[in-house]
Amino acid sequence: MSEILGVDGLTVRLPNGAAVVDGVSFALRRGETFALLGESGCGKSVTALSLMRLLPDGVRVAGGAVRLGDSDVLTLPEREMCAVRGGRLAMIFQEPGLSLNPVLTVGRQIAEVLELHGGDQASVQAETVEAGGCSRARLDQSGEVGIEVEQRCIELLTQVGIPDAPRRIHEYPFQLSGGMKQRVMIAMALAGAPGVLIADEPTTALDVTIQAQVLQLLRDTQAESGMAMLLITHDLGVVAEMAHQVAVMYAGQIVERASRQQLFTQPLHPYTRKLFAALPDARRGAAPLEAIPGNVPTPDAMPPGCRFAPRCDRAWALCHERAPEWREVDGQGVRCHLYAPEGAGREQGEAAGAAEPGFYPAPDSRSHTLLEVSNLQVHFPIRRGVLQRQVGVVRAVDGVSLEIGAGRTLALVGESGCGKTTAGKAMLQLIAPTAGSVRFGGQELIGLSAQALRAQRAGMQMVFQDPYASLNPRMRVAEILDEGMAALGVGGDSAARQGLMDALMEQVGLSAAAKWRYPHEFSGGQRQRIAIARALAVNPQLLICDEPTSALDVSVQAQILNLLRALQQELELSYLFITHNLAVVEYLAHEVCVMYLGRIVERGATAEVLGAPRHPYTQALLSAVPRVDGGSGQVIRLAGEMPSPAHPPQGCHFHPRCPQAMTICRETYPGETALGGTQRVHCHLYAESVGRAGD
Amino acid sequence: MLAYLIRRLLYAIPILVGVNLLTFALFFVVNTPDDMARMQLGIKRVTPEAIEKWKAQHGYDKPLLFNAQAAGVEKFTETIFVERSVSMFAFDFGYSDDGRSISREIGTRMWPSLAIALPNFFVGLALYITFALLMTLFRGTALDVAGVALCVVLMSISSLFYIIGGQFLVSKLWHWVPISGYAPGLDGLKFLVLPVIIGVIGGIGGNARWYRTIFLEEVNKDYVRTARAKGLSEIKVLFRHVLKNALIPILTGVVVVIPLLFMGSLLTESFFGIPGLGSYTIDAINMQDFNIVRAMVFLGSVLYIVGLILTDISYTLVDPRVRLQ
Lengths: 695, 325
Description:
- The complex is a heterodimer of chains A (695) and B (325).
- Chain A has 695 residues and is of the alpha/beta class.
- The radius of gyration of chain A is 27 Å and the shape is globular.
- Chains A and B meet through helix 2 and helix 4 of A and helix 1, helix 10 and helix 11 of B.
């Protein structure tokens, strides 16, 4: 039997008795990747943690069985469980930055697993069982690891693609980049030679080019070792690239189970279909995204019938009354009344009015320039020594130029650390730029007095990434909205402002009465609506949106993107959209600028740049995005990671990672080359053939 | 790191000047040199001449901060403040009002202070951390609740009660150790046991509860979950992973007091009749002996600054991320 781990009717309850995971069953087979797909709060991580018996204090397994070989993981004594954890079941987590012990060397942390579960000689010693504890391992009290263990650590690090492993094992996690840390996590998981690897959102915290590297590594190791993998993710693209089998979770239950092939060609459950429809994609064109209204229900307030019924546009009376049974349809499992005898016939009728083409016509492309940024630089000094003399600079933003027309959206795209957020803040004068010019509506902002700048503040506002952190938890929504208006003298007297607030709340899709509540009473998507309302309160012409949807679920992201588009239409707003998510760019932006290490490397109309990327970095970035349709073609894998902006490489910044680097790339930074249309690129590949268009 | 230390020591100079000025100002707001002279001379012999003579003898016959009669720079230097302050920076504390060398007094009195403070500190620290770790290990169980309750009870009782109650029970009723007193060398052991134990008990409540909070915060971090996922037992997770990380916040509060241990404890020393620096300070305050008070405050400030620098250095030992520059 190739089944290696079987989960049967797993139920997990919170201290208040609410079930966060309710009767989940699935099976993992050797060499296979099983993906648990779902939005935040659906119980997928809790499922994974209960397999390891690592649930947080108070949360407990209330029923079900987890078969691993011939034992039930849930009933093993704790002592034997220690041998299972890290030995037969290993796990990697979402935040590699937080999941490694900051004060122990990487080698020490891997050695720990080897000492506990390490194969060969070490395992012989590990057999002796310590009273009251886990298997005894020889731990060198000096903190140094034995030669053999060290050798094995180096092998493991090399296996997960960490260069210079003999040196790296003596380093601490903070000396490694995010991608490297996740590789170390994987090495640690592999150290015990587990039969099953549980990967809980392994790439969510990583940039796309790094994500591509890590996913490749996971696939390779699986192919080598034949272990089974339970992949927990919210990202359909990752599922498309990695999974053999997929289970879709919603509100603590599996609502659909299918092979990858089946799921992507013929999703059965309305929720799964909605998830696909909510993905932003250029091919959708001007049609709005199909957002799923509302939010995932909380475990203590589950709807009585089908849990998805309140948000489902195909639901009928039965759905609200009785929970649907699990059914198998052509080898594909689904929990939906549509596929029961009662639902016969309904399954064919596709929901009407899915898309209203032309609902959002693109704004006039010939609009006047609202924001004009030229050669913007932000340098941070590095200081050292007794007198704190400046010994160098971090060139966070190093000569960025762009224009945004009224009513247009410009996307600033780049991976973390490329300086895109700093550039956005510098344009708003929230950080003092070192040099350059920022003209807003013809008015130069750099060098303005604090008072003159205040007068300009109403014109441009910012929406931040994390709606959980960017709203003051001690202020009511009304106070949050009012603060900006009162400070900038917008909206007349207090009573008039109350009226404005009501209108604003309605405009962003919230009820006016909700303004008396506190931010914690709202969900993530609603909070981001409040953040947008706050920005809109002072009648800005320009919104700088810094990753406004990256903290949100796909279905909620669609709501926010639709809202932003509708608002642009209605209010003639301009957006500077700072993001790493290329799908969002395709959906929302008219123009795009790709940033790498403080500079823009390629720019132009979205269709041109994303349709026919010319800069090798843009090409790699695009090819690294996991595609839902699977047919991604050749993926360009970038070696290494972005260098530090304190020490940018000589010549073209990208040349150390560029697959097409030439001699000249190591010597001089390429000037701007205009290609057909609006597309411009900084790359030596195009400099000669097309002719230089100004340096 | 050397550059960092040099910079920190340079910062210390303005701090010490400021502390000195403040002590000086506070002392002379409530005391005039005349008051001091009267106090020293006793009620009967007070005549204006005697006061003037005492002031001249002890160097208090000049203006406090600004000498209007002098010329040029001397307007500032010919004052009590400058005369008494400058020598301080060379750790020359001068003489107390009864004519003894303050430096020598400090040299002899710091040993009794240390004899109490050092064991109190180290035994206490070990006990508090152990107690807190135990509560963390049994978190959420009845043992944890009982431990916290005990801490709250211990915290809520005044330290005076521990001292007086301890002296009554252990010394007066049971006659195990003397109530108070001090002797140098091993003979002094019997005098030290009670104050040390009482000091340790008095600190359990607050410290163990505080450390427990720090441990609990660490225990819920992601890297601890990773450690458990490796298959480590809970005890190993606590000792190998949590303890070292939790030490970082604990160090902030602990290392800084190490140099201050020299200064002794005002309360314990006066109740147990220990001739240390704590009781020395209390007596000086009662006697309005400005020289001693100022010397002790100055010494305290210096030791505090040393403590802060030691704290920074200790961070580099436990936290590889910290580099001093």
